[in-house]
Amino acid sequence: MSILIAICFTSLFIVGYHYILYPLLLFILIRAKRILVKQPAPPAAAFTPPITLLVAAYNEEDFIGDKIRNTLAIQYPGELVQYIFITDGSTDRTNEIIKQYPQITLLYEPQRAGKTMAINRAMQFVRTPVVILSDANTMLNPDAATLLVSHFRMPDTGAVAGEKKVLNTTGGAESQGEGMYWKYESLLKKWDAELYSVMGAAGELIALRTSLYEALPADTILDDFMLSFHINMKGYKVAYEPAAYAQETASASLQEEYKRKTRIAAGGYQAISRLLPLLNPFKYPRITWQYVSHRVLRWTLVPWGLVIAWISNLLLLMLMKPGTTYYHFIYITGIIQLLFYAAAFAGYLLALRQIKVKYLYVPFYFVFMNIAVIAGSFKFYRKMQSATWERSKRSVAAG
Question: 344 Cβ partners below 8 Å, 6+ apart?
Answer without folding.
Answer: 360, 363, 364, 366, 367, 368
